[in-house]
Amino acid sequence: MNAAKALIFLLTLPFTVLASERNDLQSCYDRGGLTAIKPAGTGRELVVIIDQTIPMPEDLQRGSWAHVDRFVQAGDRVKLYTFSAFLPGEYLRLAYAGELDMPLEGEVRDDVNMRKLRSLDQCLATQKKAFQAGFGKQFVKGLRDARQDIPKSEIMNSLRKVGEDMHREQGVNDRVVYLISDMLEHSDYTSFYASNQIKQLNITNELKLAESKGLFADLQGSRVYVSGAGLVTDSVKHAYRSGKTMDALGQFWSQYLNASNATLEGFGTPSLSTDLR
């Protein structure tokens, strides 16, 4: 297959297939010619999703990175998505996908050539920094590229698409989703705004609407954490959000996620006060 035909073939593959094959962090075992003895990963996956319709304050950006950095361990898979609305140049993107290696232990380690073992250990010792650099670059870009002039925010549809990706992935039995978003849906399906301000949600009606439009996702039993809930752009009147309004927003998303095979474990309004677990 020549290069042109290969490119056409790749472009015709579904998004989910491309996502499942991608690894932006080179395995130390593959690099050292030790693929055959590479240990299985932890089975954990962190899926970070950045909503680019609302710029996040600097302190929330730093806090969000700290949550990710504390969570990720050797053997974990990590993905980073960005989304806004399905407009020209604005759509759900898989910005990063990588898996950290597990260290080699036991009798298998004892059987490895000393030179290769030394090279492997050196690579493993620096892999977390390589992850921080590669993932971190895309993470910062995703946050810094956020714009408040995008007229739509399709949160539920984006979660549905991410769930489709998860469904096709093998070898993951423990998922955490970290969603950095104002959680204010504003799409052709529904809007959490009225008269240019956050509206008081009728949770039952909004859930029925989501069901009727096929907007529930299948997030494969994920535990979901949110940072940034309730943040508003400069154009929104009455920047103050009452406790009643924020409680309703959290209750909607908790019930939406329950219907989407997930649980809401932390809802930062806007700062997330609990660690990812």
Task: Set down the secondary structure blueprint.
Elements: H1 3-12, H2 15-21, H3 28-31, E1 44-51, H4 58-71, E2 77-83, E3 93-99, H5 106-110, H6 114-144, H7 155-167, E4 174-180, E5 193-194, E6 197-198, H8 203-212, E7 222-227, H9 243-259, E8 262-267
Parallel strand pairs: 1-2, 1-4, 4-7, 7-8
Antiparallel strand pairs: 2-3, 5-6
In percent terms, what proportion of residues is strand?
15-25%
**Spatial gap, N to C terminus:** 45 Å
Roughly how much helix do the residues carry, as a percent range? 40-55%
- How is the biggest beta sheet arranged? 6 strands, mixed
Give me some keywords for this one.
single chain; 277 residues; Rossmann fold; six-stranded mixed beta sheet; 8 strands; disordered N terminus; signal
